[in-house]
Amino acid sequence: MAPFLPSLAASHLLKQNHNQRENDDLDTGAAASAAAAAAGPAWRQFPFFEPQTVRDMSDFSKPPSALGSPNEVAAIVTCPIRPPLQASNANSTLGSGLSSTPLKNGRKADPRASSWEPSVLVGDISGQVRVLDPKLFCELASWDAYSKDGSGGRITHISCDSRGRVVTLGEENGSRFPILRIWDLRVGGKGPGSGSWSPRLLSEGKVQHGSKPNPVAAMTHTPSLSFLSIGLADGTVLLLRGLDSTLMTASTTASVASASASGSKRIPAVALPNFKVVFQPSANSSSGSLQEPVTALGFAEAASSILTQQQTTSSGTAARQNGYAPRKRVPNRQGRNVEGQQSTDKAQVRETGPSTVYLFIVTLSRILRYVVVGKGAGGSPSILDDVGCALGCAAVVPRGSVVQTGVPGGGSAGKMVIAREEAVYIIGSEGREACFAYEGPKARIHVACSQVVIISPPFQASSASASATVRNYVSGGPFSPSSSASRGSPLSNGPPSIKRGMSGNGLPEIAKVTVFDLDNKLVAYSGTFEGGVREAWLGPAGEILVLGDSGALTRLEERPLRAKLDILYRKSLFLLAVNLAKSHAERAGSPEAAARVEALMADIFQRYGDHLYAKGDFEGAMAQYVKTIGYTQPSYVIRKFLDAQRITNLTTYLQELHSRGMASSDHTTLLLNCYTKLKDVASLDKFIKRPAPGPRRPSSPGLDGDHVENGESSDRDELPFDLATAMRVCRQAGYYGHAAYLAKRYNEHDEYLRIQIEDAGDFEDALKYVRSLSPEEAEKNLLQYGKTLLDELPDKTTDLLIELCSGVFVPIDADSPQSLPGGLGSKDSAGRSAAAAYLSYLQVGAYSKGTASSAKTGSSTPNGENGSKRNSASAVEPYKLDRAPRRKGTKSSGPEVSSINAPSMGEPEQADEEKVEAYPKPPPRLFFAHFIQHPQQFTRFLETIALARYGQEVDMDLHAPSHDPLSLENGFKNDLNDEVETTRILMELGIDTDIGSEDPDAADQKSIWNTLLELYLSSSRPDSANVLDGARRQAQREKALHLLEQHDKLPYDITHALVLCSTEKFTEGLILLYERMGMYEDILRHWMDLSIERKYESGNREVDHRNEEGDPGCKVMAALRKYGHMRPHLYPMVLRYLVSEGSILTGHKEDLGSVLSHIESKSLMSPLEVVQALSKTGVASVGLVRDYLTRSIMKEKEETEADTLESQNYNLATNAKLAEILELTDVSTPQVFQSTRCTACGGQMDLPSVHFMCKHSYHQRCLGENDVECPSCARDFGRVQDIRRSNENLSNRHDLFISEIEESKDGFAAVANMYSKGLMGLVHTSELSS
């Protein structure tokens, strides 16, 4: 048969796989190299399997005795169960030991029950089936499957389904046709004719097609034994349908009874269904050519599954580019999602049986597909490919295996593997899917998951062989079981009877066993076996067992995954390591094992990425790093790609982080920065504008024509990024539309306004959006952006603030064409708003008067100027609020429910009013700072709020008798002291001395009028930003003065007003406030400072001091005459003022004399103080005060003489007292007592009597028994003693001394008082007594 792949195709395939292959062949010379090059692609070869020789349990020097005659072995298969223990007890020498083996729970096993432990079934050419232990290979049981009346038979095929039912095909002497028998190892009894155990015969039948017998070439069945197919040597293919259902109808009890009753003949439980011919070469051949035999059969099932729970699938972009199939994510033990594991959870996927079943029919020259179940079932077989194979060189990939064929539809079980001399082909249900060039003769193959075990026929070993394995065998190198042991081992030196012919160089014939990994496209094992291979099969644990013709049994144990990876790491074959770990993960039998493999794969990807990164392949490195997400710290990868040249790779990694929900806010920032740096608007749109889950409700149109939904919590929770971070980065990069889209969609009002105002500059939209918010949200955002909105839209923003603070704010749709609800902002025919007309009706400020004056005089007024200009000096029409106004003097009490009604001018009000829901009205002072650059709008705002909310306004019709506070006709009365007057004024103005308990509403009113006063005064300055003419400035000052006068109705702060009047040099208001507060000293200082200021302004020119209106000095003297009698200390202050400047003294010499006379008469200053005050400036001469000094000196002289005389008298009295004390204390001086009457009773003195040194005498009877002191003097002396003790106690209390001085008005008098008490140098009583 001609090979399918010519040498040119083989060379092309070699070039395509150049990056995945390495030549590990040893260099054994030029001839060997040339032979290897001509033999086709040299796949990578690794020692992933470790050969182990299986020994007999009784004699370790020999192979297992149960397989001692390999030439008699016809077929070997692994069975998932074992026969009952009674079969072992009856047939095996190990029966006694096995029967006594307890189970895990401590109880002994039931000898009649089968065990769900694997076993090995061996069918031989004598018709007997033996059951072997898969580890020890000792015989557990056996029975004659094909023997009749002592006549012999033989087994040709043996197989086992997933339930442990054994299917055998064999021949018996006396029968012309092959016999098919199905056994049940779980149930059995005594065999016919002997006492040996035999399994239950479920069914049997002859394989017959026509009258001419044909040997069986191939047999196959589905794992559930639902379908069974047999291929005959003449090319006919037979099919059994519903076999599983037929076998399930068998009755165990009846079968066992019938078998026991017959004694000599087996009776099947049920009869086999009839075979159906599905393929005949002669019938299907158009040319009527010769029959072609069938070489292999295989079933492929496509199971239909119902997905009961949505599973998240993820696969990195780089993984898809490299041909890796997407893997499902399931939670691992740590609770996070891992890749590469197919979920087997029954709650997620429920299989409903195969929806389509195909039967592959392989002949020597072609492959056909017959549809057993599904669309087109029962039709003629279709040709899939014109590639056939020899007998035993085809097998189907078992279910549960995943073979990555690299084409659509690959990666699933049910593919047919065809082995030819030139290559290995993968055939799917639609045709050829893959081809792997692997040249060499092939005797048969076996498929273990995704690994193909290829067994070659015996050939002569040669050092010039193209196979490195053969050359190593010749040279004694690795990868050969015979080389790993001595030449005397059973593998190399069998009995002479089983050795094959020797060559001239003494080398025996060998057979090569190769394990080819279809997933990873490598040779996982290659070894030689002397004398050939009799049989090979798969063990229950996935190991490969090879039975040689010499009887030697070799177990090929697959190395652990980590050991395989270590081999690949040393050769830097990371791509192979990835594929290898991936195939292990897909074959994992449990989620825990798959999770462990996934963690190991992450380490491989990281190593592979590091390797590619070091080589400069940054794109390939990132493709690997993406697969480590969830295991490797993102910062490890991000740090490697922070260079601007690698931003594209970094973007790929960050995208995958977000798609898996593992990104932090920093990762979001970095990803959005990458988008903006790359200017990839499409990717940014896809990332930002994610479709909302669930049904969409129509809402206001958003940015870029998309409909924006309300930001629900579920929608926000499903975001793969941090919302605040995304908006912040989009703003920083200049993508304001994207940031606004996110803010509006998820109801981030603050962020949306910040974007529209600070970034996009769309102030109209921002103001409309504020109107659509709730009052609380509108208040919060106007506090933040009110100043900016006033700068851009002063009138509209002022109107909105008036509504909000007046309690009539109603949220409206942001996209409504009306800017105000209910037509509130409509214009009348005259061009004025209804709000302005309403305020005119309410008589707010000067608006109505300005309108009236304009109508009368025709002059321009603030209402007649354009009010839309920013920072213009023109007055702006106030806003209209339709509510019952309070008259002046009333106060509001808490939030109220207002109604909005704005009828057109000249039309009656509508009957139905739109009710406004009550809400807490914000304090107006919160928005004061926003109006700093907009005084006209600020004035309108405050006047409207004061009238609409508190019913207060300045009454311009109320005039004071005179604006000159120094006029004697003004009628001010100051007959009270300073403290009482100040308290009265503060109480009239509503100022509470306890600031903490002040009503917030009262504080708001006070703030409004304080600010209005400031606005009135600032707008009246000549250098004001809003320049007004003289008349208008005077009108503003008049309004300010009226505001100050109406203190009983307008609750302004007098202290604040005082500072404003002083700052704005509003003399009339300042003097008015000074007088009301009793600050007369400040009035005098004001005029004094004003006179000095005018002196410097006039350049020291002569000033007419006789003109009281032009000279502030006259104002000083007038104020002194007015307030001097209440404040005497004003005279010394005026005295210093008069002598401060020569020009002042020149005009007020007479006033100086009167001041000195008053000071002298009232003793307000000492002469020394007067002299010091006059001498400080050097302006006053001695002649001006000569008479005053003379009088003062004479008076001082008289007082000094009087004080001297009084001091002398005190000295004389003191000396007399001291002499008397000395006399009394002198014991040598006699004392004469001349008193004749008792001091106590007043009676005539008689004996016995008592005389005291104080000259007091008493009857003895008038004194007490213990009286040793004069009773009359004791009381006075006791008071003196108490005073001295009190002074002694106070002598160390320096704090009391200091506080006494601080609290005293005359500190010198306080110090003198302390001296008088003896605190300074006090003699203690104890010292005095001593």
Features:
five-stranded antiparallel sheet; 38% helix; 1330 residues; alpha+beta
Topology of this structure?
Layout: H1 7-16, H2 30-38, E1 49-54, E2 73-79, H3 85-91, H4 95-99, E3 119-124, E4 128-132, E5 139-144, E6 153-160, E7 165-172, E8 179-190, E9 197-206, E10 216-221, E11 228-232, E12 237-240, H5 243-248, H6 252-262, E13 270-271, E14 276-279, H7 281-284, E15 294-307, E16 313-314, H8 317-321, E17 327-328, E18 330-331, E19 337-338, E20 349-363, E21 367-373, E22 382-385, E23 394-396, E24 416-419, E25 423-428, E26 431-437, E27 444-448, E28 451-455, E29 459-460, H9 468-475, H10 481-484, E30 509-517, E31 522-530, E32 533-538, E33 544-548, E34 553-558, H11 561-570, H12 574-586, H13 591-615, H14 618-625, H15 634-638, H16 647-659, H17 665-678, H18 681-688, H19 713-717, H20 723-733, H21 736-745, H22 749-760, H23 763-771, H24 775-792, H25 794-806, H26 834-842, H27 847-857, E35 899-900, E36 914-915, H28 935-950, H29 978-988, H30 1000-1019, H31 1030-1045, H32 1054-1063, H33 1067-1077, H34 1080-1097, H35 1112-1123, H36 1130-1138, H37 1142-1147, H38 1149-1162, H39 1167-1175, H40 1186-1225, E37 1249-1251, E38 1257-1259, H41 1271-1290, H42 1294-1303, ...
Parallel strand pairs: 9-13
Antiparallel strand pairs: 1-34, 2-3, 3-4, 4-5, 6-7, 7-8, 8-9, 10-11, 11-12, 12-14, 15-20, 16-17, 18-19, 20-21, 21-22, 23-24, 24-25, 25-26, 27-28, 28-30, 29-30, 30-31, 32-33, 33-34, 35-36, 37-38
Helix pairs in contact: 11-12, 12-13, 13-14, 14-16, 16-17, 17-20, 20-21, 21-22, 22-23, 22-24, 23-24, 24-25, 25-28, 26-27, 28-30, 30-31, 30-32, 31-33, 32-33, 34-35, 36-38, 42-43
